[in-house]
Amino acid sequence: KERTEKLCKLAFEKGAIAYQWIPSRFRTMEMSRAAIQQMPTMIRLCPQAHLLEREFRSVFEPELDINNIKGFTQLKKSVRNELLQLRRKREEEYLRASILENPRMLARASQEMKTDQMFKKLLEVSGCNLKFVPKNKRTLELCKIAILNGGVMDHVPKRLRTLDFCK
User: Fold this and answer.
1) How far is it, in rounded angstroms, from Cα 70 to Cα 65?
2) Can you tell me whether residue 123 is helix, strand or coil?
3) Has residue 166 got a pLDDT over 80?
4) Contacts of 51 (CB under 8 A, 6+ apart)
5) Would you tell me how many other CB atoms lie within 10 Å of the CB of residue 95?
6) Residue 35's closest CA among 47, 25, 46?
7) How confident is the model over 30-82, as pLDDT tens digits?
8) Is the C-alpha dihedral spanning 55, 57, 59, 63 positive or negative?
9) Quick check: 86 and 62 in contact, CB under 8 A?
10) Contact indicator for 61, 90 with CB cutoff of 8 Å
11) How high does pLDDT run on average in the chain?
12) Reported confidence tier of residue 130, pLDDT bands at 50, 70, 90
């Protein structure tokens, strides 16, 4: 059948996953916002016009939008730093969630974010994600987690392929 705006809206109301099959001409600002909040990787499917809207972008900033505070530069330095830290923290949380859904996003993460704990979570989702873990960070423990979760030996460094690894 022909996809109509009404049919697309009904499909979206059943679940935000439907967003990916809705033609861009039927995607509303509200649909885009809801889809991204439920599945951050949906941002790649948003119409560019939505991404350029200040109102839309503020969804990803702290409740207090520092871009709209008059005299932000005149605020006390401690208050200004606190607001910037809140913003960075929220951006990091968003990026962490995105990485678990799309491991290629790991390339955008800072070195501080690339921890063993992050890699463990990533490998628990799928052992095949070992290929996204930097080679110098692939430890015996991480490689074992990867193999136990469906990873392949091709991505395990040769130096770790020992009898201890097979135990």
Assistant:
1) 11
2) helix
3) no
4) 43, 57
5) 16
6) 46
7) 898 888 777 777 777 877 777 666 666 555 544 444 555 445 555 556 666 77
8) negative
9) yes
10) yes
11) 80
12) very high
CA gap 117, 102 in Å, rounded: 17
- What whole-number distance in Å separates Cα of residue 163 and Cα of residue 167? 7
Q: Please choose, from the candidates 48, 86, 49, the residue with its C-alpha nearest in 3D space to the C-alpha of residue 66.
A: 86
Indicate the angle between helix axes 77-101 and 116-125, nearest 10 degrees: 30
For residues 126 and 149, is the Cβ–Cβ distance under 8 A?
Answer: yes
Q: What is the mean pLDDT of residues 133-150?
A: 91
DSSP assignment of 2-49 equals: ---HHHHHHHHHH-GGGGGGS-GGG--HHHHHHHHHH-GGGGGGS-HH
The C-alpha torsion from 11 through 15 and 21 to 23, rounded to 10°, is 60
Question: 98: how many CB neighbours lie within 10 A of its CB?
Answer: 20
Phi, psi angle pair for 110, to nearest 5°? -75, 165
